[in-house]
Design brief:
heterodimer, A: 812 residues, mainly alpha, 3-stranded antiparallel β-sheet, 35 helices, 8 strands, 52% helix, B: 441 residues, alpha+beta, 5-stranded antiparallel β-sheet, 8 helices, 25 strands, Adaptor related protein complex 2 subunit mu 1a (chain B), lipid binding (chain B), endocytosis (chain B), transport (chain B), cell membrane (chain B)
Chain lengths: 812, 441
């Protein structure tokens, strides 16, 4: 049988031919014709015109033909709902068939036909099938409830299918249990607050029993469901862990990862001094390592998850560095992930080996990989002090290769090393300067300029070097321009005599010839600082810099906790919460790790417990960009009013300004805040915009409080938000920041139940009270509300800094 | 869960498309083709997110299999399922190729209907599937009621991998211990990393529903028995294997037929085997590995246009054993213009298309040594970038298990039928192969 011939029919008028064949008396011919139809459907041709003819073939006792017709029905029923009704009778009849395979086929297919009228007829057969004597039919019916719920949730509730589904958790057949669990979990996801799954010790026990007996896939459904259970105490938690650990030896990696998820989550509740806690930690390492001998795609999933696990519990894999060494033939995505984990696991104990490997990698072919390897060498230097010297000499060797991107990457990391260990490795500056001309990437140029400015006093020709950059000032990227400006000011402060002209030049380039507000702002700050008080200028510009963190790209702790609850899933692969890539209500609930039970540690927050009491939680630089997926992206202030930071190229600089700086700014104190900020706003009123009204800068700086309120602008267009238009502005009244909103209903129906939520933002803004919208908003009505805001919310640096995300879900 | 499953040929034409969920539209088929199959650069990730739709793909020869979803699915499960799907297709019609897929598209749709329901993977054991889905159309029209319920109870049952009523005249089983030994060695001969990943593959032709028990020289078991001094030590190394010493197994995973809870508590491996060939277990060891070969490279750059390479290989196992299919692959720079090779044993050839000297030796006994030397002429280049010397890799096959694993026993109990453990004919074979066996130079 060569069915491939069905793929090659491209004649004109074939629809008519097919029609004739479908209505043929001969069974064989009919079957052939249906096959052709399916083949055309596969390649994307529209064969919906044949609907009645195909449905006519349904009444047959040939099972193969029947299945083909069903396949067609599933595809086209939605576009021909009235015609689809013709099929109902056959379905209902098939659900009564003596053969369980046919009963199951009918109920399975019926659930896939997403036509409202059909679903009504589905209820009775489904009810029977859920209680069928044959487990094959029951397991199919269980999934069918989830299908029906997806089409018509209300119907499922009204018909009491949810209770029947719950009863199936106690079924004698493990596969029925597994499918019932899967269906219930899915339905529960779209009802975040219903207690649908209603997990209690008895049901958990049933699930654990079924876990030993069902198929590999069923085990995954059950484990994933178990992970959402919250044990009552550490004893229960331990007993579940004990019964889940055997799954770590399963051949199916997904079973292993789901078991790891359950264990990682429930471990949270075990007291750390418990023997079992240590045993469990030891048991987790080998299966994780074994995952790395799976196929590359699975290795990738495993590595992304291990990246999370290593951040949460570094002790599990700390001795397993070697398995993450990159193999020459690994696919690039595996290589890059392995490298990430190597950096995380690098410690004094294994640094020699790691460095030798990284050096090897830096000579490979793939550009991204080589860059990452070079960067990793720098990270090692910063992380393990003892190795810094070796790392620097390795980097210098690499610079000698003169491979363009290697050199650039090396210079970027050397800048960080200089910051971490001041006055130690400056002897290499000469070598760096030799490569000045080959740098063509903004990041590398900026890093080099920073180095020249920072060590201007030791570089004889620093002024010449910087001047050479100045020629093409306007063609440089902002990053380089800002860095150049700062570097020349530094140079001037260090060698005032011979560089006066240079500094004049750069200041005028930055303030007069540039369109970039950031650059202009910074130019003005420096200019005024230099002209009013050179001593203060020195204090500000040449101030001691804060330490840079040892780890980079750490995931923010709350997000990490959430991702740990999603081990094995897409969220753990993307390192993003499900709400960032899933539409609708599914997955929007945020999962959290359970609090630790047990004696002395109950007060300790779980993440501090993990990283060890001695370490302060490291400042986190979000690596994934902002967390998308929110309804609106608000720009807080007009773009001209960004907060100028002294060293934006250094990641920590900006963080510190916000962490320490804003509080004091708000309190009206000029003294405690970094001097540069108020000076900029006060001294350059041309650019002082929206921010000034928000944060009272204290009496000294000349802006009367609450004087200026920007006019409302439209933040959210109606078409993007199901008919709700929002415009608004920020104002300050009586010392309280308020968000003034105008809500307009441009939809056809009444809107009620408004609520508001602020995402973490740079300013720590959060609503101080609930949103007061008392009346339901009828179509075309507009109301104005004022929402008082506080700045006590969690702070997170956003890109750009003044980006504020607000979730504003009207429930209609 | 999985929203849809597509199969494409190398050009990106759809061969199979099955949509399970409403949120996946026809445009998803095209999105994957445009963004992944037709993408200019190399694949950077097996998971791609295009317009809030996630695509998981695997490639078999030049066929693409893609699973699509809009939800936060279990990613590991999706990949495991795709591999399983490939296994099932291979079991039905052999190699996964465009021709075979087109020829069997009706069958594939049937399988997809059976093993994925609303995107949830269902029983995908070929043994069970073949009882009611066949290439000659579906069985089931003319079955008796008993037959039908037997099928359904197998598909959903606790022992979904084996059907009842299997009968063989001769009860026989074959055990293959297949190991692949992986090595990464520094040019100085220091072992950077080495591990063995092994598989125990079993072919069983046994009647009824036999209960099997498998034993090997696992350190934990041997130590436990040593301490307890048990007298009823099960079947003393009856399947060969001198049982010299025990080995430390880092980790092992089992086929779903093995009772994992029993392994966890007693470390005994007991199971009812599927019929025919299947993989009983996989394991990994890192301690006391016998490295069958050592490669000693010597690369000398003579001026800018010449390289001298000398590679010595030493076999490191019993002289009575023979290694086979030995192949050493010595990479050469891209600007190689000519190569002269001298080797004492086997055949060596410079393959310009692969940028390597390939040295093949048919057989080599243990504790022997062999050498190759080559002169590589280079074209002068002004390429600044240095040649990134890839490692020297090696392939071979040896008739022992480099991990030291020995099968101690495999007992068969079938209480209902009248055959005993002694009546079963058992065969054991050890094969050690090279995995990624590399020496940097």
């Amino acid at each position: 049988m060569t069915d491939s011939k069905y793929f090659t029919t491209t004649k004109k008028g074939e629809i008519f031919e097919l029609k004739a064949e479908l209505n043929s008396d001969k069974k064989e011919k009919k079957k052939e014709a249906v096959k052709k139809v399916i083949a055309s459907m596969t390649v994307g041709k529209d064969v919906s015109a044949l609907f009645p003819d195909v449905v006519n073939c349904m009444q047959t006792d040939n099972l193969e033909l029947k299945k083909l017709v069903y396949l067609y029905l599933m595809n086209y029923a939605k576009s021909q709902p009235d015609m689809a009704i013709m099929a109902v009778n056959t379905f209902v009849k098939d659900c009564e068939d003596l053969n369980p395979l046919i009963r199951a086929l009918a109920v399975r297919t019926m659930g896939c036909i997403r036509v409202d009228k059909i679903t009504e007829y589905l209820c009775e057969p489904l009810r029977k099938c859920l209680k069928d004597e044959d487990p094959y039919v029951r397991k199919t019916a269980a999934v069918c409830v989830a299908k029906l719920h997806d089409i018509n949730a209300q119907l499922v509730e009204d018909q009491g299918f949810l209770d029947t589904l719950k009863d199936l958790i106690s079924d004698s057949n493990p596969m029925v249990v597994a499918n019932a669990v899967a269906a219930l979990s899915e339905i529960a996801e779209s009802h975040p607050n219903s207690n649908l799954l209603d997990l209690n010790p008895q049901t958990i026990n049933k699930l654990l029993t079924a876990l030993n007996e069902c198929t590999e896939w069923g085990q995954i459904f059950i484990l994933d469901c178990l992970a959402s259970y919250l044990p009552r105490d550490d004893r229960e938690s331990q007993s579940i862990c004990e019964r889940v650990t055997p799954r770590l030896s399963h051949a199916n990696s997904a079973v292993v990862l789901s078991a790891v998820k359950v264990l990682m989550k429930f471990m949270e509740m075990l007291p750390k001094d418990l023997d079992y806690y240590g045993t469990l930690l030891k048991k987790l390492a080998p299966p994780l390592v074994t995952l790395l001998s799976a196929e590359p795609e699975l290795q990738y999933v495993a590595l992304r998850n291990i990246n999370l696990i290593v951040q949460k519990r570094p002790e599990i894999l700390k001795h397993e560095m070697k398995v993450f060494f990159v193999k020459y033939n690994d696919p690039i995505y595996v290589k890059l992930e392995k490298l990430d984990i190597m950096i995380r696991l690098a410690s004094q104990a294994n640094i020699a080996q790691v460095l030798a490997e990284l050096k090897e990698y830096a000579t490979e072919v793939d550009v991204d990989f080589v860059r990452k390897a070079v960067r990793a060498i720098g990270r090692c230097a910063i992380k393990v002090e003892q190795s810094a010297e070796r790392c620097v000499s390795t980097l210098l060797d690499l610079i000698q290769t003169k491979v363009n991107y290697v050199v650039q990457e090396a210079i970027v990391v050397i800048k960080d090393i200089f910051r971490k260990y001041p006055n130690k490795y400056e002897s290499v500056i000469a070598t760096l300067c030799e490569n000045l001309d080959s740098l063509d990437e903004p990041e590398a140029r900026a890093a080099m300029i920073w180095i020249v400015g920072e060590y201007a006093e030791r570089i004889d020709n620093a002024d010449e070097l910087l001047e050479s950059f100045l020629e093409g000032f306007h063609d440089e990227s902002t990053q380089v321009q800002l860095q150049l400006l700062t570097a020349i000011v530094k140079l001037f402060l260090k060698k005032p005599t011979e560089t006066q002209e240079l500094v004049q030049q750069v200041l005028s380039l930055a303030t007069q010839d540039s369109d970039n507000p950031d650059l202009r702002d910074r130019g003005y700050i420096y200019w005024r600082l230099l002209s009013t008080d050179p001593v203060a200028a020195k204090e500000v510009v040449l101030a001691e810099k804060p330490l840079i963190s040892e780890e980079t790209d750490l995931i923010e702790p709350t997000l990490l906790e959430e991702l740990i609850c999603h081990i094995g899933t897409l969220a753990s692969v993307y390192h993003k919460p499900p709400s960032a890539f899933v539409e609708g209500s599914r997955g929007v609930q945020h999962k959290r790790l359970p609090p630790r039970a047990g004696s002395g540690e109950s007060t300790e927050s779980p993440d501090v417990g993990q990283s060890g009491p001695s370490e302060a939680p490291p400042a986190v630089i979000p690596s994934q960009g902002d967390l998308l997926g929110d309804l609106l992206n608000l720009d807080l202030a007009p773009p001209t009013a960004t907060v100028p930071s002294v060293q934006p190229s250094m990641q920590m600089g900006a963080m510190d300004l916000l962490g320490g700086g804003l509080d004091s700014l708000m309190g009206a104190g000029l003294g405690a805040a970094p001097a540069a900020m108020p000076a900029s706003l006060g001294g350059a009123p041309a650019v002082g915009g929206g921010l000034g009204d928000l944060f009272d800068l204290g009496g000294g700086v000349g802006m009367p409080t609450g004087s200026y309120v920007a006019p409302k602008t439209v933040w959210l267009l109606a078409m993007k938000a199901k008919g709700l238009e929002i415009s608004g502005t920020f104002a300050r009244r009586g010392g309280i920041i308020q968000m003034d909103l105008s809500l307009t209903n441009k939809a056809m129906s009444v809107m009620t139940d408004f609520a508001i939520q602020f995402n973490r933002n740079s300013f720590g803004l959060a609503p101080a009270g609930p949103l007061q919208v008392l009346t339901p908003l009828s179509p075309n009505q507009t109301i104005d509300v004022s929402l008082p805001l506080s700045t006590s919310g969690p702070v997170m640096k956003m890109e750009p800094l003044n980006n504020l995300q607000v979730i504003y879900p009207p429930t209609k | 869960m999985i929203g849809g499953l597509f199969i494409y040929n190398h050009k990106g034409e759809v061969l199979i498309s099955r949509v399970y969920r409403d949120d996946i539209g026809r445009n998803a088929v095209d999105a994957f083709r445009v963004n992944v199959i037709h993408a200019r650069q190399q694949v950077r990730s097996p998971v791609t997110n295009i317009a809030r739709t996630s695509f998981f793909h695997v490639k078999r020869s030049n066929i693409w299999l893609a699973a699509v979803t809009k939800q936060n699915v279990n990613a590991a499960m999706v990949f495991e399922f795709l591999y399983k799907m490939c296994d099932v297709m291979t079991a039905y019609f052999g190699k996964i190729s465009e021709e075979n897929i087109k020829n069997n598209f009706v069958l594939i749709y049937e399988l997809l209907d059976e093993i994925l329901d609303f995107g949830y993977p269902q029983n995908s054991e070929t043994g069970a599937l073949k009882t009611f889905i066949t290439q000659q159309g579906i069985k089931g029209q003319h079955q008796t009621k008993e037959e039908q319920s037997q099928i359904t109870s197998q598909v959903t049952g606790q022992i979904g991998w084996r059907r009842e009523g299997i009968k063989y005249r001769r009860n026989e089983l074959f055990l293959d211990v297949l190991e692949s030994v992986n090595l990464l060695m520094s040019p100085q001969g220091q072992v950077l990393s080495a591990h063995v990943s092994g598989r125990v593959v079993m072919k069983s032709y046994l009647s009824g529903m036999p209960e099997c028990k498998f034993g090997m020289n696992d350190k934990i078991v041997i130590d436990k028995q040593g301490k307890g001094g048990t007298t009823d030590e099960p079947g003393k190394s009856e399947l060969g294997g001198s049982g010299k010493q025990s080995i430390a197994i880092d980790d092992c995973t089992f086929h779903q037929c093995v009772r994992l809870s029993k392994f966890d508590s007693e470390r005994s491996i007991s199971f009812i085997p599927p019929d025919g060939e299947y993989e009983l277990m996989r394991y990994r060891t890192t301690k006391d590995i016998i490295l069958p070969f050592r490669v000693i490279p010597l690369v000398r750059e003579v001026g800018r246009t010449k390289l001298e390479v000398k590679v010595v290989i030493k076999s490191n196992f019993k002289p009575s054993l023979l290694a086979q299919k030995i192949e050493v692959r010595i990479p050469t720079p891209l600007n190689t213009s000519g190569v002269q090779v001298i080797c004492m044993k086997g055949k060596a050839k410079y393959k310009a298309s692969e940028n390597a000297i390939v040295w093949k030796i048919k057989r080599m006994a243990g504790m022997k040594e062999s050498q190759i030397s080559a002169e590589i002429e280079l074209l002068p280049t002004n390429d600044k970038k240095k040649w990134a010397r890839p490692p020297i890799s090696m392939n071979f096959e040896v008739p022992f298990a480099p991990s030291g694993l020995k099968v101690r026993y495999l007992k068969v109990f079938e209480s209902k039928l009248n055959y005993s453990d002694h009546d079963v004919i058992k065969w054991v074979r050890y094969i050690g192969r090279s995995g990624i066996y590399e020496t940097r130079c």
